[in-house]
Amino acid sequence: MTTENVSTADVTYCEGWDPQIRAAVAPIPEPEARSRDASGEQYAVLLSVQGRPKALFQVDWGHGHLGLFLFDECERRDRELEYRQLEPGRLHLMRYQEWRHTSDTDAEFPERGWCFTMTIDPDGRARQVLSDVGGSRHTGASVPVEHRSVAKAEFGEWTAYVDARMLGLSGPITLVPAQRPVEGPASGTMPAWSAPLPLRPRHLEALFTPGSRLASDEGRVALITEPSHAGWLHLPTGSVIAADPYFLGDSGPFTVTVAPGDYAVLIASMRWEGTDLEGETPAAMVRILDKQTVSWELALLPGQDVRLLGAGEFFGFGVDAGMGCFLDASGRDEFARLIEEWEEESDQEVDLLSSEVRAPETGTNLIAYHSGLGDGSYPVWIGRDADGEVTSFVADMLILHDADALPPTAPSTAVRLPLFTPVTDDRREAPFTSPSATAEFMAAQISHVADGWAEHRRSFTDSHVLRDR
């Protein structure tokens, strides 16, 4: 890292950054940025030195998000720190990423290139992935609190998150308003970024409404047909489990429960227009109340926090046998044992789809269904009515999640419940540690993982050379 004999950085408030023209998008006055900060609306901040970009902040307190990008000498973003606000006055470093380029002409964020990613849990446990053209290495790590938590600074105190050493400057840094910011598109254009949000539910009502039409990204049109009634799910405790029926041992119930009782299970069905072929199973539902759903939320297991999910991510149940199922938590252990015994007796996979499967000891039952395109991970959404009561649990097989609704499909009126409660008046006076100390910690982690990755590949190459001899 080079050191420049400069300690002044220009501050430009804007909508974002355009990597093509390497300039701020639609600069905005500082008072407007301050107003957006106070109301939880998104904006961006560019710090530059002698006309060269050094750091970019993406701020959206409405979604508890603070993103920080650092630039290389070619004015490409090559490091990212993604913070989430999980409690008042404090930000959690959720993800750190770093990219390295092979030439000055390489684009930002190359799909096939060197990339280090560390994802950090609030308790400090972290997962590290180092990938390059030769593959990837996955390791675990522990991140001390001083490197994963930082105080939320006052508006404009950007050096609380990035200091002179991180920018390659002699410090301390003096921040001054940019006099003539180099700008991209004129004000009024769409923002150049958005806070990374988890997967959002789509078309859930349409998947159970006969006649709905959804155009897939492959150019085919799915026609939703009448859902099939798979039976009545007996929930003696009201604690619902969604899982692969052949892997129940590690599954657990959702945190949201319902009143004990028997509830209808509906299996959505479809066919592709222009063919006589039935389509895959797009979704399955446990219908709790026959009332209109006005909101959806992601079903969670104990300890899961939806605020820690990245863009398009979700918590879901895994499938490895091509099937999903619903059951009450009280029957999990008995069903896990029974299915294992049935397979041992018949020496083949038990057909759980032909009829209702009931556990004799607990009296609970299990209702299984085909899991869309097969193995993978699938989210379960919880619907609620206007009074907040649970209307349904819907396992989305994601076959039509990215499809476009076509007439006569009725548009969804349900909304996703807010993930974050905007908190803006909760500043603290200082961060727990210097930003450069965290940067040095990350550099040490990268060096350790990279050395291990290089040693692994050397050993792999040596073993093949010996075997070939």
Binned strand content = 35-45%
* Quaternary organisation of the protein chains: single chain
Secondary structural class: mainly beta
Domain unit count: 2
- Cα radius of gyration in angstroms: 26 Å
Distance between the termini: 44 Å
How many distinct beta strands? 27
- Counted by DSSP, the helix tally is 4
Give the mean pLDDT.
89
Shape descriptor reads: elongated
Largest sheet: 11 strands, mixed
Helix content: 10-25%
Low-confidence stretches: none
Short description:
The protein has helices at residues 30-39, 164-167, 332-346, 435-468, and strands at 8-14, 16-18, 23-25, 43-49, 52-60, 65-71, 77-87, 90-100, 114-120, 125-132, 135-142, 149-151, 174-177, 213-215, 221-235, 240-243, 261-272, 283-287, 295-298, 316-319, 323-328, 357-358, 365-370, 376-384, 390-396, 404-406, 415-416.
Annotation keywords:
10-stranded mixed beta sheet, 2 domains, 469 residues, mainly beta, 4 helices
Task: Provide the fold topology.
Layout (H helix, E strand, L loop, with lengths): L7 E7 L1 E3 L4 E3 L4 H10 L3 E7 L2 E9 L4 E7 L5 E11 L2 E11 L13 E7 L4 E8 L2 E8 L6 E3 L12 H4 L6 E4 L35 E3 L5 E15 L4 E4 L17 E12 L10 E5 L7 E4 L17 E4 L3 E6 L3 H15 L10 E2 L6 E6 L5 E9 L5 E7 L7 E3 L8 E2 L18 H34 L1
Parallel strand pairs: 1-13, 19-27
Antiparallel strand pairs: 1-4, 2-3, 4-5, 5-6, 6-7, 7-8, 8-9, 8-12, 9-10, 10-11, 14-15, 14-26, 15-17, 16-21, 17-18, 18-25, 19-24, 20-24, 21-23, 22-23, 24-25
Pfam families: DUF4241
InterPro entries: DUF4241 (IPR025335)
Protein name: DUF4241 domain-containing protein
